[in-house]
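To the wet lab folks,

You asked to see what we're planning to order before we commit. Fair enough. Below is the target structure as tokens, and below that is the sequence we designed to fit it. If anything looks off to you, flag it before the synthesis order goes out.
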């Protein structure tokens, strides 16, 4: 008998219908539970994809050190994948990310380099490149690496198409590196060009983990605005309240970016009839306990 390894369980996550939130209209609102991945987020998919495809090309070999700038979930996923595949891992992240994220990365054996919060992810990316230039390791670069969206072309998109029986009409995703929305858009529009792709971004002043509006100079190279039909902006207060509602009313314990995308899904549901709306639940809520979003 051949037994599976941990990496075999990345992907194939549940898609569940909301029962209480958004009830009362003739639409179906579905949540893709990416927190069910082994390291707890949607980023398990591109992390493993980037490593396996780089190995296949011969551009990295076990024993080397990988470097990545991250706000959290990609770093955790890469740290897990590096542990599985035998790599060192240096993660560069702003110092204001939650303590649970840091502890999880270190648990997987990663070395953390913390950057001043004022510099945001832009500074973290600059520091990662400096470490690479100093010979500390190899950057996979989730922001420019086509193996990031490819994970969703190969996995997330086909799963959604199969799980909805091809009936999906709208896909909502928070936008950070944009790998998820790029890959899922590519696949779903290849099946049905009428499927609408909606991106969730933070409103002015909001600091929602995992959701970004990038300055032009730092816009991820994998991003193609033509693949997104509509952008919606979410306040921090609305994202946090929806995150709490998901737990209280649906039993879905998720992170704040998931609350943001679900806010957008409900906006759509208020406008539509007979729609099948899928929102990505990016990760689990336990890595946000120290942020205060959940009552003590």
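Sequence we intend to order:
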């Amino acid at each position: 008998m051949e037994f599976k390894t941990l990496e075999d369980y990345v992907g194939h996550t549940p898609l569940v219908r909301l029962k209480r939130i958004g009830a009362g209209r003739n639409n179906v609102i579905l949540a893709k539970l990416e927190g069910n991945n082994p390291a707890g987020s949607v980023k398990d998919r591109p992390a493993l994809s980037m490593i396996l495809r780089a190995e296949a090309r011969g551009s990295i070999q076990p024993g080397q050190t990988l470097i990545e700038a991250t706000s959290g979930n990609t770093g955790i996923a890469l740290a897990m994948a590096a542990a599985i595949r035998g790599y060192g891992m240096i993660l560069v992240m702003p110092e204001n990310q939650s303590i649970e994220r840091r502890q999880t990365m270190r648990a997987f054996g990663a070395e953390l380099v913390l950057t001043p919060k004022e510099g945001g992810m832009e500074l973290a990316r600059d520091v990662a490149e400096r470490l690479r230039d100093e010979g500390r390791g190899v950057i996979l670069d989730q922001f420019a690496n086509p193996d990031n969206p490819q994970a969703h072309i190969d996995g997330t998109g086909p799963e959604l198409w199969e799980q909805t029986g091809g009936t999906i009409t709208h896909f909502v995703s928070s936008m950070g590196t944009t790998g998820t929305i790029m890959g899922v858009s590519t696949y779903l529009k290849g099946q049905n060009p009428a499927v609408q792709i909606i991106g969730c971004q933070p409103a002015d002043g909001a600091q929602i983990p995992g959701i970004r509006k990038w300055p032009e100079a730092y816009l991820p190279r994998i991003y193609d605005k033509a693949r997104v039909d509509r952008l919606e902006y979410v306040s921090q207060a609305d994202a946090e309240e929806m995150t709490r509602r998901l737990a209280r009313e649906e039993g879905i314990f998720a992170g704040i970016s998931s609350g943001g995308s679900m806010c957008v899904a409900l906006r759509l549901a208020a406008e539509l009839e007979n729609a099948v709306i899928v929102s990505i639940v990016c990760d689990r809520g336990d890595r946000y306990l120290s942020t205060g979003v959940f009552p003590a």
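Structural context that might help your review: The longest strand covers residues 88-94. Helices lie at 44-57, 73-85, 99-107, 120-133, 147-163, 179-191, 236-250, 256-271.

Thanks,
Computational group
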